[in-house]
From TrEMBL:
Protein name: Type 11 methyltransferase
Gene3D superfamilies: Vaccinia Virus protein VP39 (3.40.50.150)
One GO-annotated biological process of the protein: methylation
Keywords: Methyltransferase, Transferase
Native source species: Bifidobacterium minimum
Gene Ontology molecular-function annotations: methyltransferase activity
Biased composition (Basic and acidic residues): 110-127
UniProt cross-references to InterPro entries, sorted A to Z: SAM-dependent_MTases_sf (IPR029063)
Residue segments, region Disordered: 98-127
């Protein structure tokens, strides 16, 4: 998942994907995104920090415009984008992603860390 990479890592991976694809090939990504495109940098930083604390992974999502720029800089033509809400805590999604044995583990972790997750929604720098 590109969202878990720093900017240089994202660029290297997308560049390598472009190099490996045959002419006319399709490269599809499913990534975390920030909205709207004109978010100020401090808001992006707060969101990224809170997300990293909540999911225990240093995720670095971009806006749609930033994802498009990254892909175009590597040589891709972006022909389609779509948006969906995150469904991290929906049972059906968790079962699909984590499986029957992994979903209960995810629920235990969420409930054990629930106070930390709620606290991350009120980042002191968010105002």
């Amino acid at each position: 998942m590109l969202s878990m990479q720093g900017q240089s890592g994202k660029s290297r991976i997308v560049g390598e994907a472009f190099r490996l694809l045959r002419p006319g090939g399709t490269y599809s990504i499913h990534e975390l995104g920030l909205h709207p495109d004109d978010l100020d940098q401090s808001t992006k930083d707060v969101i990224r920090t809170d997300l990293a604390r909540a999911i225990k992974v240093n995720a670095r999502p971009l806006t749609e415009a930033e994802w498009k720029e990254l892909l175009e800089q590597a040589g891709f033509d972006v022909v389609w984008t779509a948006h969906s809400p995150m469904a991290l805590l929906k049972l059906g999604r968790n079962l699909s992603d984590e499986g029957v044995t992994g979903e209960p583990q995810l629920q235990r972790r969420f409930h054990a860390e629930g106070e930390g997750l709620a606290a991350s929604e009120h980042h002191p720098d968010a105002g």
